[in-house]
Amino acid sequence: MATHSTASCTGSTLLQPISEIINLPLDQVNFVACQLFALLMALWFRLYLHPSKTSPFVRHVVATLLGFYLALFCFGWYSLHFLVQSGLSYSVIVFAGLEHMHKYCFIVTLGYLIVCQITRVYVFDYGMYSADFTGPMMVITQKITSLAFEIHDGLAKRDGQLTSSQKYLAIRRMPSLLEYFSYNCNFMGILAGPTCSYNDYMAFIEGTCYQPRHQENSNGKENGKYKQTEPSPKKDVISKLCTCAVSLGIYLSLCKLIPVERSIEEDFVSTTPFYLQVVYLYLSMLALRPKYYFVWTLADAINNAAGFGFNGYNKDGSPRWDLISNLRILEIEFATSFKLFLDNWNIQTAQWLKRVCYERCPINPTAATFLLSAMWHGVYPGYYLTFLTGIAMTMAARAVRHNIRPHFLTSDSHKAVYDVITWASTQVAISYTVVPFVLLTVGPSLKFYRSWYFCLHLLCILVVMALPVKSRHHRAKEQLDGVLKTDSQDQQSGHSSTENNCSQKEKAT
């Protein structure tokens, strides 16, 4: 196994002996080693290149050079694609007109990523799960496109045309080339992200990230005594590293014991009762998730160790380091709806999809968002099967929530029953939906769905047809009308609060 992976690894072979000893592909060993090295560099970066000790220019240069070094170690000359993609997109941002710059940048950046994914999948190593150079390019694509839209919002739109979150994210001056490459390719996030906003990253580099700038995250104490001292990420970093260790241990122990591929084998399907097939599917997907928990939590810990990720204070005064966290494990495992699961899984990617697609697409934003997500993930047919299924699942789950859930809110016991049923349904629906994402190809994916008689697809169609759901714009209009009606009543009774009313209107909008 290790020998085979050496031939396909494009990065350094320095750790080949370790790869052979632990019998893991060399590119995966390189990835973990680089992330551990980045963790050490993050501690050094926070202590010795603190904003109080050095200039933003030096911090930008060091973060960028370390990022390029890690990319070269992991991917060799393939890391040049990071520079080419970033360089092309920066040229579009600088030389294209502000009115359409964000659209051109989106097309160029996503198009370059898709071309690289096509060549990697269909020319070099189809079906290979190991780390590859298009993984970091996916994160860079998120950053570049987010940056383009935020520049457009800041320089080509008036504040009245922006939502509160768009105002906060809007970029009011064109980034320099060094700032641009530092944002895209810094050592903390070049290998596994997560995506962050440009303004948050610049606040981290300049040392202003501990000031309560984002009003959505303020809780009163941020503006009081807690903001005077710089909080330490030590406790959170240690906690996240422990989570990484547990996740890695679980994944290595279970991933080969209950593989998803077993669920489409003829003898398994023919001899296993259907209810046990359902249980096996859930357990096999449960065994896969710790891999993502490990990668994303380690990336989060690296950023926190460098001092990036501070997100205000909790009510008890303890610091929060979840500004760029990519997942919430407990909320994922105990999610009681399809939406709750997706909201807590790959959070920064969900935020990116929301900001560049869902909020801006005038026609069927849900379908457009799922399609963009599939294109961004890659060119395996299984991705498109998963996200097409996800559209149906989302619409059905929304219909159930709007029409059935209110009947179970009459008492705590009824709500508890509803929560148990929806938790089990959500876990089965998620597992059913992502099977093609794991199997990758059309044949095995359809074989799995046929063994289940496409039952959840058909159920979703029936639910959507039977249970009406109001459109997003209709719901927003009703909510706004309700707020305005309440405002009018409050004004007549003389007890209205101007500040509270404005906040309610903004929420409704």
Report on this structure:
There is one protein chain. With 509 residues, the chain is mainly alpha-helical. It contains 23 helices and no strands. It has helices spanning 2-8, 16-22, 26-48, 56-75, 80-95, 101-124, 134-156, 164-169, 177-185, 198-206, 234-254, 266-271, 274-305, 329-333, 338-344, 347-358, 365-377, 381-403, 412-439, 442-451, 455-466, 472-493, 498-508. Helix 5 runs parallel beside helix 7 (134-156) and helix 22 packs antiparallel against helix 23 (498-508). It is globular, with a radius of gyration of 24 Å. The N and C termini lie far apart (55 Å).
Number of strands: 0
Instruction: Please bin the fraction of helical residues.
Output: 55-70%
Radius of gyration: 24 Å
* Count, helices: 23
Element string (H = helix, E = strand):
HHHHHHHHHHHHHHHHHHHHHHH
Tell me, rounded to a whole number, the average pLDDT: 86
> How would the global form be characterised?
globular
Largest sheet: none
Low-confidence stretches: 1-7, 213-228, 493-509
Tell me the strand percentage band.
under 5%
Distance between the termini: 55 Å
